[in-house]
């Protein structure tokens, strides 16, 4: 079982750690009172940027404006304090701000802006080395500042990857829910059509049973049309609307052979779009008085619907209709 720490607890721990340089700054005032008001201004700058960087914002990423604002103390605090510190203060609390900037910039890197944090970190390092020489690298916390930046950067990479994987997982879950809903809707629609077909067939079937198989010509024709209608409900699926059902039945009454084949070409249309498209087809079917009609909804082709009406002995179809241009796949 996975254990998740509350965000407030993690934030509290980070805040307590970030306040440690504040304590060092106060101690440094007693060691180096010459920093005077510059120290308090520097502390104010640090706290103003550190608190929202660590504890602010609901998203794990802070705004770019906040990250850019964090450059201000990284640039100004060394400029305010270093000219007022004697060179022999290397290794004392006087360079507290190096750790403070490392904490704040490490958090900036972790929360989505590693390059901005790197610029701020470089500013601190350059100013400290320019003030204390290369000897200051080992005793002012510069190594720690670089490590903090690297750690924040690595955490940013990990969080970005985790966020991307989470979004991908959520999208897969949404797609699965959509597919499940489509399947449920398709199943419900199929059941509705089957029930409708059975209700329609029931009177004719009852007459066939009562006649004990002795069918007159009229009943035979009704049975043939009924068999075709049942086949339409099974193979026609999305092609079946009340208007299509009526037009096909009328065409068969006129002696026209009609075949409906739904191969999935209408799946991504709304009901209103599907009905409007099939209404055009029904109007064309009503004009056919003999021969054979084939209505298809092909999948993976440039057209959503094709309607062909042919007559025996005629080389060209009477109707060859393509409807519903499909948008090309991106």
From TrEMBL:
User: Which keywords annotate this record?
Assistant: Membrane, Transmembrane, Transmembrane helix
Which residue ranges does UniProt annotate as crossing the membrane? 40-60, 67-84, 90-108
Q: What is the superkingdom listed in this entry's lineage? A: Bacteria
> Which named protein is this?
Uncharacterized protein
Annotated organism of origin: Candidatus Rhodoluna planktonica
């Amino acid at each position: 079982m996975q254990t998740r720490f509350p965000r407030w607890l993690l934030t509290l721990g980070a805040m307590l750690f970030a306040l440690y340089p504040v304590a060092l700054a106060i101690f440094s005032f007693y060691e180096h009172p010459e920093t005077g008001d510059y120290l308090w201004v520097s502390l104010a700058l640090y706290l103003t940027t550190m608190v929202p960087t660590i504890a602010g914002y609901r998203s794990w990423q802070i705004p770019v404006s906040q990250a850019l604002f964090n450059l201000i103390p990284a640039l100004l605090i060394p400029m305010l304090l270093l000219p007022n510190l004697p060179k022999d203060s290397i290794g004392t609390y006087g360079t507290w701000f190096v750790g403070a900037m490392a904490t704040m910039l490490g958090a900036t890197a972790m929360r989505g802006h590693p390059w901005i944090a790197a610029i701020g970190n470089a500013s601190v390092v350059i100013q400290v080395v320019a003030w204390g020489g290369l000897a200051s690298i080992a005793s002012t916390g510069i190594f720690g500042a670089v490590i903090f930046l690297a750690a924040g950067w690595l955490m940013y990479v990990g969080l970005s990857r985790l966020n991307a994987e989470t979004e991908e997982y959520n999208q897969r879950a949404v797609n699965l829910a959509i597919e499940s809903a489509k399947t449920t809707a398709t199943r419900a629609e199929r059941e509705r059509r089957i029930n409708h077909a059975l209700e329609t067939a029931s009177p004719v079937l009852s007459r066939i049973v009562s006649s004990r198989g002795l069918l007159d010509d009229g009943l035979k024709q009704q049975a043939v049309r009924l068999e075709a209608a049942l086949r339409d409900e099974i193979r026609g699926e999305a092609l079946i609307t009340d208007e299509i059902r009526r037009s096909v039945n009328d065409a068969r009454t006129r002696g026209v052979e009609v075949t409906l084949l739904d191969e999935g070409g209408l799946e991504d249309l709304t009901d209103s779009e599907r009905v409007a498209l099939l209404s055009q087809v029904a109007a064309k079917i009503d004009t056919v008085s003999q021969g054979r009609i084939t209505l298809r909804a092909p999948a993976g082709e440039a057209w959503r619907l094709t309607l062909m009406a042919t007559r025996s002995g005629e080389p060209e179809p009477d109707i060859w209709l393509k409807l519903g241009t499909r948008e090309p796949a991106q």
